[in-house]
Specification:
By secondary structure, the protein is of the alpha+beta class. It has 2 domains: 2-100; 104-172, Roll (SH3 type barrels). The chain has helices at 2-31, 35-60, 65-84, 89-101, 146-151, and strands spanning 110-115, 118-127, 131-135, 141-145, 154-156, 165-167. Strands 1, 2, 3, 4, 5 and 6 form a 6-stranded antiparallel beta sheet that branches. It is elongated and about 70 Å long.
Length: 179
């Protein structure tokens, strides 16, 4: 019985890999990024699904539930940090997957990221695991953390272009004071 259930988990892992790997590669190809980006995404996805597969196989073969609960608590903590902690490198990796598959963030797309009264703008040259490389019209290279790129308002293809980095001009900041 244990052997049969283990085989089912291995078959599910292979099926999940055959479904998700082409989708991740297609998302990277459609976005116009390097093949290396797709390979990184597929490798990370395989590692995570393999880890969960091993966990389930361990449960089948008799690992104590208390050990699994400790592992699950740690995994939930890591996922919480990955999604919500802006200071975490893990949140940059999570944002990498979102950016890689999002159709608006393609290679060559001109964007402006607004951070309060400041901004950074340029064409997307590359999305790596931790940061996105923007190249301004004056060839200034800006590395912007992936988690901040998702957490800040971003203009995709703004009509008017500014200087690449700096303070927003006064007429572009919405007036929040009431008369």
């Amino acid at each position: 019985m244990q052997l049969a259930l283990s085989m089912v988990i291995v078959i599910l892992y292979v099926a999940l890999d055959r479904f998700s790997s082409p989708k991740l590669a297609e998302g990277a190809e459609v976005s116009g990024f390097k093949e290396q980006s797709a390979r990184k995404a597929v490798g990370i996805a395989r590692s995570v699904s393999g880890l969960f597969g091993l966990l389930f196989i361990g449960l089948i073969w008799g690992i104590e539930i208390s050990s699994v609960l400790v592992f699950a608590g740690t995994a939930v903590t890591l996922l919480g940090v990955a999604f919500f902690a802006s200071w975490s490198l893990l949140s940059n990796v999570t944002a990498y997957f979102i950016l890689l598959l999002h159709p608006s963030f393609r290679k060559g797309t001109y964007i402006r990221v607004i951070d309060g009264d400041n901004y950074a703008e340029g064409s997307i040259a590359e999305i790596s695991v931790f940061s996105t490389k923007l190249v301004s019209e004056s060839q200034l290279v800006i590395l912007y953390p992936n988690n901040l790129l998702l957490g800040r308002p971003t203009l995709i293809g703004p009509r008017d272009r500014l200087n690449s980095v700096g303070k927003l001009p006064p007429n572009t900041i919405p007036d929040t004071q009431e008369p």
